[in-house]
Design a protein that fits this description.
single chain, mainly beta, 2 domains, 8-stranded antiparallel barrel, 8 strands, 36% strand
Length: 154
């Protein structure tokens, strides 16, 4: 229905059937349009969602050296970061709203799925030591109290 309404207005305008009376009295402002073409509040996705996770944060990261060994099925400390996802041993987080973003740092909310559950978590990802270390800190009521420190996999 959301996409049908703009199409109706376009058809009426093309046929000469839309006139000033179609707009509420005194309202000459355009109707906001969502990025997907639907009518809405005109909001756009966060810059992080549009640009993705900064390049310097992407790659494979291990809590211990063994997490980086290829072919290991027990690499429970491996974190694989792509353009818009965090992949852990048993869960995947998809990038959502960002509150901070630089080439070396991202603070954002991620929507997670794993082991039959869904949840959301605010997280800070930050590289150190020339891109060789990653610090991940979680925020929220049940978040771990200490940050996690990873080393970039070769």
């Amino acid at each position: 229905m959301r996409q049908l309404v703009p199409a109706i207005f376009l058809l009426l305008a093309a046929c000469g059937g839309a006139d000033e009376a179609a707009l509420p009295s005194g309202d000459e402002s355009p109707i906001p349009v969502e990025p997907d073409g639907g009518i809405g509040d005109g909001a756009t996705p966060s810059a992080a969602a549009a640009e993705g996770i900064p390049e310097q944060l992407r790659g494979n990261w291990g809590l211990v050296a063994a997490d980086c060994e290829p072919g290991r099925s027990d690499a429970k400390g491996l974190l694989a970061i792509s353009a818009n996802k965090l992949r852990f041993y048993e869960s995947v987080g998809t990038l959502g709203e960002a509150t901070e973003q630089t080439p070396e740092r991202l603070r954002a909310t991620f929507a997670f799925t794993g082991e039959g559950m869904n949840w959301s978590r605010e997280m800070l990802l930050e590289v150190h030591s020339g891109g060789k270390e990653l610090v991940r800190q979680e925020f929220g009521a049940d978040a771990p109290p200490n940050p996690f420190r990873y080393t970039r996999c070769p």
